[in-house]
Specification:
Blueprint (H helix, E strand, L loop, with lengths): L21 E5 L2 E4 L4 E7 L9 H17 L5 E8 L3 H13 L3 H20 L3 E11 L10 H5 L3 H32 L5 E3 L2 H12 L15 E2 L3
Length: 227
């Protein structure tokens, strides 16, 4: 006899994965549930307000050129997180404890206390910027016919075709990322494509705001979300 300990009408929560339109993440690319691909590029920022008028005009002009140079749509993502400096403050405290010069020790302690008060009274945010590069071609092959299924060849042929389609599509996606990076450099913006582990970490942090690293990103491998 199986006992159900849940109360009546108690809502059953769904896993986060059920809300994601993702099939899998592999080879530094996101495979959506419709078979299309996405690459995610991390980009640096620039303080526009600190630039001179001529520099601002140049940035605006180059940004217009950047947008006009694209023959595909992109998405721009900005994530804001409260800056976590607990580790930095801990290092300062240990540095003060090891300091043999009394004057330097006192200055280090005062600096540590100043930073602690600053963080408490001001909401200091860390902002990260990303560009999502899409490829609209689906890698999913059409369903096998009834005759192929009866012969047992449909599944293997479908899998083989899916791998070939992915390799071709990823090459096109790589070319788009390369072109994007070249155009961004004209703006003085540095870019770096996220690898598989970094993509997984980005998705994890997007749904777990207060969480730290999932695991060491270098240990993260390809992940399959759904069949």
């Amino acid at each position: 006899m199986k006992l159900d300990m849940r109360k009546k009408n108690q809502p059953v929560g769904k896993a986060t994965q059920s809300f994601l339109r993702i099939s899998e993440i592999k080879n530094d690319a996101v495979v959506m549930d419709d078979g299309t691909l996405r690459a995610i590029v991390s980009v640096s920022s620039t303080n526009f307000d600190l630039k001179s008028q001529d520099e601002q005009n140049s940035i605006i002009f180059n940004f217009q050129r950047f947008l006009n140079s694209l023959d595909f749509s992109v998405q721009i993502l900005m994530q804001s997180r409260k800056m976590e400096i607990g580790g930095y403050l801990e290092k300062l405290k240990k540095l003060a404890e090891r300091q043999t010069n009394e004057l330097l020790r006192v200055q280090t302690v005062e600096y540590t206390e100043f930073i602690s008060r600053l963080i408490e009274n001001a909401s200091i945010m860390n902002k990260n910027f990303y560009i999502i590069v899409p490829l609209g071609e689906s890698i999913f092959p059409p369903a096998a016919g009834v005759f192929s299924k009866l012969l047992g060849r449909g599944k293997s042929r479908e899998l083989s075709q899916k791998v070939e389609n992915f390799d071709r599509a990823r090459e096109k996606l790589d070319n788009r990322v390369t072109a994007l990076a070249a155009n961004l450099s004209s703006l003085g913006v540095k870019s770096q494509r996220l690898n598989t582990g970094e993509i997984i970490q980005l998705y994890y942090n997007s749904y777990n705001f207060d969480a730290g690293p999932l695991i060491d990103p270098g240990q993260l491998k390809d992940i399959k979300i759904s069949e």
